[in-house]
Amino acid sequence: NASRIPFVVANWKINKLHADVAEFLDKVNGKVPAENVVETGIAAQDLFLSDMVRATAQSPIHIVAENVHWEDSGAYTGETSPKALKDIGAKYVLIGHFERRKFFNETDSTVNLKVTAALRNGLRPIIDVDEDMSTYAQFMDAEPSVAQVAAALAGVSVDQIRNVTLAYEPTWAIGSGEAASAVQAQKAAHLIRQTLAKLYSPVIAEQVRVLYGGSVTPDNAREIMLQKDIDGVLVGTSALDPEKFLQLVAIAQ
Ligand code: PEP
Questions:
Q1: Could you name the CATH architecture of 68-241?
Q2: Mutation probe of ligand 1 site: the residue of 168, 169, 217 with most atoms within 8 A of C-beta
Q3: Where are the alpha helices (DSSP H) in 29-107?
Q4: Would you call 169 a catalytic residue per the annotation?
Q5: What GO cellular-component annotations does this UniProt entry give (predicted)?
Q6: What's the average pLDDT block by block, 10 residues per block, for the chain (253 residues)?
Q7: Spans of all domains in the chain
Q8: What is the CA(235)–ligand 1 centre distance, in A?
Q9: pTM of this prediction?
Q10: Residue 88: what are its φ and ψ, rounded to 5°?
């Protein structure tokens, strides 16, 4: 869809040290296309984000936080303020990743608080949704959780929704080496778009980007990104490697 710019987002989780971050950025700087061709983002641990913003100052790569707190400031030891993320130059923030839901008690309601906090501070949320557990018995065929989409977006206005990206990441595909088929990924993205049409309007549903994530590699990305409702990929393991990251960006072009 010409009105939606493809988006490739790396999610490094807690996998790189300071020197690795610098080395990766050295290798990709100057090699990613302009952001009106393909947008690129890299999510990393908070403590590297300022350095990354500086290292990519001449590059269209956007820096992405992996989490954020829902209050702008105050007595919340150990959390990261959305205002501070904006202040250091982060552009996007991942919210509701499956690993946060699973290991850190992230709930639909904290996801929603974080989404509205990010938007209020001028950060763009990339909201992760996984599959509907009520269809868990046939989980390889499960649909994305419409309830997670609706809950995450509660209170998000028509103006704000344009700054939101949604990412469907089936839990069984994350880090498993087994990606959803392009057909499954398209079905899921289509259902998310239908949900956006109901929550907002059909026009808005066509404007919001929907990504697929879960064991994406340069080998399977092309078919996935060719799908009509899929605007890009959220990539963990493959995006740790600068060559593979550049290949994924080239495929998105
Ligand atoms: C992720 O963590 O968002 C992810 C998709 O990881 P992987 O690409 O390793 O499956």
A1: Alpha-Beta Barrel (3.20)
A2: 169
A3: 46-55, 82-88, 98-103
A4: yes
A5: cytosol
A6: 88 98 97 96 98 97 98 98 98 97 96 98 97 62 84 97 96 91 94 96 97 97 98 98 98 96
A7: 68-241
A8: 5
A9: 0.96
A10: -85, -5
